Automatic annotation (TrEMBL):
Protein name: Bifunctional protein FolD
Pfam family, any one: THF_DHG_CYH
GO molecular function, one term: methenyltetrahydrofolate cyclohydrolase activity
Reaction(s) this enzyme catalyzes, per UniProt: (6R)-5,10-methenyltetrahydrofolate + H2O = (6R)-10-formyltetrahydrofolate + H(+); (6R)-5,10-methylene-5,6,7,8-tetrahydrofolate + NADP(+) = (6R)-5,10-methenyltetrahydrofolate + NADPH
Assembly, per entry: Homodimer.
Similarity field: Belongs to the tetrahydrofolate dehydrogenase/cyclohydrolase family.
Length: 298
C-alpha cells in the first residue's frame, strides 16, 4: 500500500499565513495580539521551542513578550510574574514552558494563569470546558493533530480511534476532541492488556507515549491513519543522535493509509496552533466573532 505522508510543516505554514492575515486586519481595528512566554531554567529542547515560538509570534505580526528565568527561581517569584501578566492588558495569552524545574509545582503554576489567557488550554477550567463541549481553549498539540486528521480524512464520524497515552497535555484532550468529532474512542496506556490488539482495531491511531518506535507494523490496521506525537532523541548504529517518533515509521508506513513523520509532522503544528489559540483568545477577549475557518471554536 502507498501511504500518504501528512506534511505537518506545510499545513502549519498555510495556517500561519491565514493567522497573519487575520492579525493584520485586527491591527487595523487597533487590536494588537500579544503572547507572553515564560521559560524557567536551561533545558536545551525547551530553549529551542521557546525561541521558535517567539520568532513565529513576531512573524505572524503579534507582540511577543519573552521571560527567561534562572533554574533556581522560587515558585513565589514565578507566581508573581504570572499575576502581573494576568493584569497586563497588552498580554492576551500566557504560556509557561513545560517541563518546569523539580522544585516548582506545575499544577499550582497552571492554575495561577487566568483561564481566559491560558493559551495552552491546560487550566482545569479549559480542560473542563473541552470535555463538556463548551468554549474551551484547546491544547495546541491535540488541536494540531485534529487539524491534520480533518485535512486528511474530512468527516471523522463513526471512525474508531485509539489514543496511546493518557497525559493531561495530549492523550486526554485528544480523546475529548475525537469524541466531539463522533469517533469511537479508546485510550490505551502502560497498564492496558494487549495494547497491540487495541491498536489493530483503529482507523485512527494517535501515538503519544514517549517510547521510541514502540508501534510496529503488525499493530496496524491496513489503511489506518497514524498520527505520531512522539519526539524521542536516540543514537543510531553509528552513535549519531537522531530524532524518532513513537512509531516505527519505515515499516508502519508500508501498511498505513496516511502517517505523520517525525520531525515535520505534529511538532510544527503545535507551534502554529499556539498562534491560532493566541488569535482566538484575543478575538474572544474583545467580543469579536471567530472566523468560520477556525475549527472547533464555534
Ligand atoms: N507550555 C507548553 N509546554 C510544552 C508544550 C506545549 O504545547 N506547551 N509542548 C511540548 C514542547 N513543544 C512546545 O512547547 C514543542 C515540541 C516540538 C516541536 C517541534 O516542532 N518539533 C520538531 C522537531 C524539533 C527537534 O529537532 O527537536 C518536529 O517535530 O518537527 C514544537 C514544539 C512540551 N512542552
Ligand atoms: Mg515539578
Amino acid at each position: 500500500m502507498m501511504t500518504n505522508i501528512i506534511d505537518g510543516k506545510s499545513i502549519a505554514a498555510k495556517l500561519r499565513s491565514r493567522i497573519a492575515n487575520e492579525v493584520e486586519s485586527l491591527k487595523q481595528q487597533g487590536i494588537h495580539p500579544g503572547l507572553a512566554v515564560i521559560l524557567v531554567g536551561d533545558d536545551p529542547a525547551s530553549q529551542v521551542y521557546v525561541r521558535s515560538k517567539g520568532k513565529q509570534t513576531k512573524e505572524a505580526g503579534m507582540n511577543s513578550f519573552e521571560y527567561r528565568l534562572a533554574d533556581n527561581t522560587p515558585q513565589e517569584a514565578l507566581l508573581e510574574l504570572i499575576s502581573k501578566l494576568n493584569q497586563d492588558n497588552s498580554v492576551n495569552g500566557i504560556l509557561v514552558q513545560l517541563p518546569l524545574p523539580r522544585h516548582i509545582d506545575e499544577e499550582a503554576i497552571i492554575n495561577a494563569i487566568a483561564p481566559q489567557k491560558d493559551v495552552d488550554g491546560f487550566h482545569p477550567i479549559n480542560i473542563g470546558l473541552l470535555s463538556t463541549g463548551g468554549k474551551a481553549t484547546i491544547p495546541c498539540t491535540p488541536l494540531g493533530c485534529l487539524m491534520m486528521l480533518k485535512d486528511q480524512l474530512g468527516d471523522l464520524s463513526g471512525l474508531k480511534a485509539v489514543v496511546l497515552g493518557r497525559s493531561n497535555i495530549v492523550g486526554k484532550p485528544m480523546a475529548s476532541l475525537l469524541i466531539k468529532e463522533n469517533c469511537t474512542v479508546t485510550i490505551a496506556h502502560s497498564k492496558t492488556t494487549c495494547i497491540e490488539d487495541e491498536c489493530r482495531q483503529a482507523d485512527i491511531l494517535i501515538a503519544a507515549v514517549g517510547k521510541p518506535e514502540l508501534v510496529k507494523e503488525n499493530w496496524i490496521k491496513p489503511g489506518a491513519t497514524i498520527i505520531d506525537v512522539g519526539i524521542n532523541r536516540i543514537k543510531d548504529t553509528e552513535n549519531n543522535s537522531k530524532l524518532v517518533g513513537d512509531v516505527d515509521f519505515i515499516n508502519v508506513s508500508k501498511k498505513s493509509g496516511a502517517i505523520t513523520p517525525v520531525p515535520g509532522g505534529v511538532g510544527p503544528m503545535t507551534i502554529a496552533c499556539l498562534l491560532l489559540n493566541t488569535l482566538t483568545i484575543t478575538l474572544r477577549q474583545n467580543n469579536l466573532s471567530i472566523p468560520k475557518w477556525i475549527i472547533n471554536q464555534e
